[in-house]
Structure formats: C-alpha cells, structure tokens
Amino acid sequence: MGKEIECANKQNDDGTSSETSGVKMKKELSLLDGVAIIVGIIIGSGIFVSPRGVLKVSGSIGQALIVWILSGLLSMIGALCYTELGTMIPKSGGDYAYIKEAFGPLPAFLYLWVALFILVPTGNAITAITFAQYILQPFWGTCPAPFEAVRLLAAVTICILTVVNCYNVKWVTRVQSIFTATKMLALGIIVLAGVYYACAGHVENFQRPMEGTNWDPGHIAVAFYSGLFSYSGYNYLNFVTEELKNPYKNLPKAICISMPVVTVVYVIANVAYFVVLSKDDVLASDAVAVTFGDKVLGMFSFLMPVSVACSTFGSLNGAIFASSRLFFVGAREGHLPRALCLISVKRLTPVPSLVFLGIITAALVMVEDVYALINYSSFVESLFITISILGLMYMRKTRPEAMRPIKINLILPITFFVICTFLVTFPCYVSPMEVGIGVAFILCGIPVYVITIGWRNKPIWLKRIFNNFNNGCAKLFICVPAESEKDF
Q1: Cα–Cα dist 342/219, whole Å
Q2: Closest by Cα among 336, 316, 315 to 326
Q3: What does each C-alpha distance from 173 to 23, 25, 186, 285, 397 come to in angstroms?
Q4: 3-state secondary structure of 16
Q5: Is the dihedral of CA 314, 315, 318, 324 positive or negative?
Q6: Which DSSP state fits 343?
Q7: How far apart are CA 76 and CA 231, in angstroms?
Q8: At what angle do helices 105-114 and 370-398 cross, to 10 degrees?
Q9: Facing residues of 343 across strands?
Q10: Which among 343, 319, 476, 385 is positioned nearest to 24, based on CA atoms?
Q11: What is d(CA 335, CA 452) in angstroms, rounded to the nearest whole number?
C-alpha cells in the first residue's frame, strides 16, 4: 500500500506535490462495450414489468402498442440530442454536466440531489426487485413469492454487483456482454412464440384493438411514463464518456445502433404478449413474461423466469456501473462530499461512490408499490431531461462558436422539448400526489445547497467534520482523489 500511495503522490519537476498525478479512470470501453451497456441497461426490468402499467392506463391493446412505438421514437430523438450534448461537453456525468454548463451550479446540484435519492437508486431498486421476483417465482408456482424473500434477495444482489463494480471494470463489461446476450435470447423466445401463435390463427385479441381506449391527455402522459421507463438508460453512456475509447465516434455510433434495435425488439415483444395473452391476463399478472411462459412453453416454462432474471441482473450491473460515475463527477465538482470522488489506488474504480449508491438502493427495495416508484422517478426524470434539452437549445444561442462534432437539426430538440413538457405538465392532475412529492423533494435541495455549498464561511468545527469523513473514507477504501479528463 505504501508504494501505491507513494506513486499516487509523486512530485513534479518543480518540486511541487502532484497528489493525483497519473491516477485517473482508464479508457477501457470499446464501441461493442458501449452498445452492450446501452442495450443491457435499457432492456432490463421495463419490458417485463411495464406492459401491465402501460395497458392499465391506456385502456386498450391498440393504444398500448401506440405508446410503445412512440416511446421508442421519442427516446431515439432524445438519444440523438444527447449525442450532441455528449460530444459538445466531453465530461462524464451526463445531465449533471450539461445542466451545470448551461444554467450554472444550483440547477445542476438539484439534478444531482434528486438523482442521488430518487432517480438512480429507484431505477436500480426496481430492477433488483424484478430480478428477485422472477428468480423466486418458480419456487412458489401460481402463488406470489413472499415480500420478505423478494426484498432480501434483491438487497443481496445489489451488494454482490456493487462488489463486482468495485473490483474491476473489465469484470463489469464481461458480465454486461454475457447477460445482454442472455436477455436477447429471452426476448427471442417471446417473439418466436408469438409468431407461432399468430401463424396458428390466434389473433382474436386484435379484433377490436382500440376498444376501451382512454383518450384523456393526463392518462396518456402517465401511460408514457411506464413506456419511457422501459426505454430509460439511453443517456447512461454519457455518464462514462471519460472511460470510452474514441468517444467522438463511439458515443454516437453506440446510441444509433442501440436505440433502433431496442425499439423494434420492444414493439415485437409486446405484440407477442398480446397474441398469447388477453387484456385481462396482462392486467392480472405481476410477472407478464412468466404468465406468457406458463401458457406457451409447457414443461420448459422455467426458461422464462430464468432468462428474465438474467436480463435484469445484467441491466442492474450496467446501471450501477454507469450511475456511480454521476456521483463521482458531482463530488469532483464540489457538489457532494469529497469522499465520493475518491478512486481506489489498486482498482482505479470509484469505490466510495459505488458503496454509497449501494446502501441507498438497498434501502429503497423495501418500498412495496413498484408502480408508485416508477411514477415518482419518471416525473422527476422527465423534468430534468426537459431542462437538459432546453440547455442544448439555449447553448445554440449563447455559445454558437462551441465545437460541436455532431450537430443535429434544431427541429429534433424542439420536438423533444415540447413532448417532454407535455409529459411533465399533464400528469399533475392525474397523479397529483406523486408529482407533488417529486416537486417538494426537488425544492428541499435548495436549502441543502445553500448550507453545504453556498455557505462559504462555515464554522471550523463543521469543516473538521467534513474533513474527517473524507479522510476516513480515503483510509478505509485505500483511495485518492482522481484527476479530471479535460478533453478526449
């Protein structure tokens, strides 16, 4: 350990200390790794959980399929917007870096605040819960698995993947590639079974596809929340641009390859669901893919929950990897405790950030209503994505000279901004409690910012507490501060 710390604190030629010289995260992610991360994160719990939520609010099979198609197109437009942002502002941190660049530190901190306690851990908790439900379901047959067993397994899974992410980035990418292939196999089974049933003439569920459609704008927006939740993750590669090889080329390529693939797979999978299962079957099922497997796979029905469990396991792995970098960057910018921007001397991974995220996520798995979690996180995420896209358009005006290796047509961000504004405003009267709690939590971040960041002349005893905490984490995890990548 002494040699490692000595290496991390070597002196420059002029005799000054260079505490972080040479200590930074490695560029280890290739284009294939980038595609695997995006596809692996997006295709997780959503396609196996959200079909029920989309159908419940939409009211009809036809409307539900329209929501899935439009959610994919909207996510593709959003992903193209993020390619411009990601290549214009070459920093890890995703929306946090873009909002900070466009509107300053307070809005960026508020995003970091809600991401820390709502967006990231909620999404990871939902994925972990889905993994546990599907892996345990075969042991309980037609009965739901006990709440305690599901939550305990979800918490253990979070701990295991946190350790993997702390240990080695190459392990993470290997796990991601393996389980991305597994989840495509699971969806392939669903699609092939659906095609077989359709060819056998089972198309009665599509005879009146728009019957029962709910045309209320607020309910349509809430239906999009569940649909877009399944596509969330298209901007996660922007969180790790500092670890991506040749990001000016590989970032847009990875996004443009991944999003059409995911959209086509999602729409075909939903058509397959509705070919095999009636509207009532989908609404009555907490695990749609398991119900689907029970009906079409017979004695091999166990393959479906196992495949779905592998899918969600890989998605959780990728989400933990990418999202931990958000808090790492936020701490490096001084918006979170400095301990979260430390990296392991041996492993070159942000261990404190990963551990902190794991603790919050494990706590959230105890929430019982998964769909309430989806609504909370979707509203807040839509709000800050709207702000990021507004920042893109704002910087087109205020920083026209900035280097933009990729510059999309202005119609795309304007369209995306208008639709996101609709998704943010219309659910206010349909789900006022979720929206109200989300807004209240965002506003709570303002006094936190004022006290912890805006207050420059803190008392000595408070500074000493912060310093002791940071130094304790550095010793505990054998970590040092990391250098920032100034450019690619």
Answers
A1: 44
A2: 336
A3: 21, 15, 20, 33, 39
A4: coil
A5: negative
A6: E
A7: 9
A8: 160
A9: 480
A10: 343
A11: 8
Cα 68 to Cα 223: distance, rounded to the nearest angstrom: 9
pLDDT at site 236: 67
Please, which pLDDT band fits residue 107 given cuts at 50, 70 and 90? very high
Q: 196-253 pLDDT, tens per residue?
A: 888 887 778 788 878 888 888 777 877 877 777 778 777 766 666 666 787 777 878 8
> What percent of the chain clears pLDDT 70, i.e. is strictly above it?
81
- State the first-to-last Cα distance of the chain, in angstroms, to the nearest integer: 30
Burial of 129-146, coded b for 16+ CB within 10 Å and e otherwise, reads bbbbbbbbbbeeeeeebe
The span from the CA of 324 to the CA of 96, in Å, is: 13
**470: nearest Cα among 458, 480, 455, 460:** 480
The 3-state secondary structure of 124-170, one letter per residue: HHHHHHHHHHHHHHHHHCCCCCCHHHHHHHHHHHHHHHHHHHHHCHH
Q: What does pTM read for this prediction?
A: 0.71
Q: Calculate helix-pair angle for 105-114, 303-332, nearest 10 degrees.
A: 150
Longest Cα–Cα distance in the chain? 80
CA distance 305 to 116: 30
Nearest CA among 101, 87, 145 for reference residue 408 = 87
Q: Token pair of 118, please?
A: 């709502």
